[in-house]
Please model this.
Amino acid sequence: MRNTILALLLCAPLTSARAVVQKPEPLPVPAKVRVASTAALSGIWNNLSVNERRFAAHVIAAARAGKDVLYFQNHRQGLMIKKVLEQSLTAANFKKTRARLGPQAFDEYLNYAAKFEDQFGPYAPSNQKYVLRKVSAAQAARLFETYAADSSAQDRQEAVALLTDPEYEVLQIPETEDGAGLENCGGNFYDRGITGPQVEQAVKAGLDVCLFCRVARGADGKLLAQPQTVDSPGVVGRALRAVVAELRQALALAQTPRQRAELEDLARFLEKGDLKDFRQANMEWVRDGTQSKVDVMLGFIEVYQDYRKRIGSWESYVQIVDPATTSQSVRLAHNAQYFEDLMPYGQFKKRFPADYAPPALMVYYFQEIASGRSSGYNLPNFDDIRRDVGAKNVIRLPLPGEDADPEMMRIRRELYREFLPPAKVERALSMRAKAWRVLVLLHEIIGHGSGTYDESKYGREKDPISELGNLGSALEEQRADLTALAFAGDAKLVDVGVYKDQAEALATRNALYDEYLVDFLRHVSKERSLIEDHQRGNWLFIHMLLESGAAAWTAKDGQSQPTPENQVLIVRDYEKFHAAAVQLLAELQRIKAVRDEDAMHKLFADHAPLEAIQEPWAQAVIARGKDLAINAGSVEQPWQVTPEARFRLLAPKPVLEKAAQAWTDW
Model:
């Protein structure tokens, strides 16, 4: 099986000639960012017991206090920019700012602010910043002089350049493993001016870059890895002290002994900076399983925003477990060994204990604070804990009424009409929710938890994904996706209640395959890049589908000659699609298991080239997607939980002008 897939991948030509890599460009500010209603959170909140609400109020406050850490990580001037945006858009200053900028420039500024609030900083998950084109540098400078008068002139100048200069700190992190251009990137995991070669030299000399540190230059010029704790100077220490204070108030209200232990370990970790405490908190969280209705995960977690995949971004999730749907995900988890036995993994299959069932929660995300939005997650990222204790799977449920919302239906229909043949549009709309739910369930519960590896290649307490470096996350995310694509039509999903019968299973699998192609094109059109880890892995698989004949470009009307302007991706053969998923899954697991880094680098270099974004097909997809409402994204309707544990909306309606005026209290 392995030789077959390698022959296919290494001999296949690219879809078109290689393009010359061009300098990165910033993203344009969307014309209209939607405000997503959070009114449904009120009903979820009111269904909690009094004690659960009081507990949730403290962990929500802890999570909000930690927001400042994320803003600081995403850009050194992030908090100052946040302050200026929010203050200039308060009820008292809203009209004044609009008059200062003029109608068109103000609309752009308002939508920029919405993206900044939603992403907790200036950068999209695709690694590029948004840039203002209608607001001049002089206009922006006057706003910063007004609302950030206490900041230095140098800091204000840097902030203005970030917002208005299309060539200044366009990327958050370097897009190559060697860190080329790190000194020109805006991410704040590394002191400004530190270069990639300097980092590599320091690491070779013994610099230990840990999950919760920041790399700075010392007074002697040497690089230092500074742990981020309550004792850190400035904003980080201040924010973490507030986080710990709220966690300690939540202890007496914890719903289970395991949850109480988790919060105690988290607080100790943030105070002492000993990774053993964070590891212990993760173990307690896993062992708590589905027992706590208000579930909490926070800390330095995902490493996507570090080009070396070592430093974790600050994230926090407060989620409310839905018992009815969780029973279904738990049944799926109980069948982990069934799926493992069918994996194309050869000798690297797991043997789970007889009663093994990884915790699997179906939840409403009450609060998500992270640079990107997720449909679910599987943690912890410590692979030895996953091996010895287990992992926990969290699957996001749409808020009540969200899937049937007429505005969302209109937005999705617009997307499908652009990137699907007309005959498939209505089926895609009707089956999207089920198909995507199946993808996330299998990706998180079965995919990430599957497979073993040769520990002698990594070390017993080392995480293979981090050790594989820059491409490790792309490989792992695609491995989990391929698991879902391989098993989406499996009969076992009928047994556990995901489907009513095998006919529905196959119909949903096929709809998922269609959706997968559309989603790839949507991300290309929105992100204008192939660098994000999930998208890089998707591109690898899409390329394989095209070369195998399982998928193809065709004119949207099914009759005309395909051109970049009218073509869409279609599944030509659903069984070939399935076979391709199984084959690539086997190869990615082999690479991970035996640490075949040479094969990994060759695979991605030859068959997921980043420069393909400059090819005619990609540039046409970008042009076709620039006005799609779904690509503009959304920002939450602001809300608040009071110290008395009451939920209230800060903006009475999901309208951007009203939402912006409430951001200072959000």
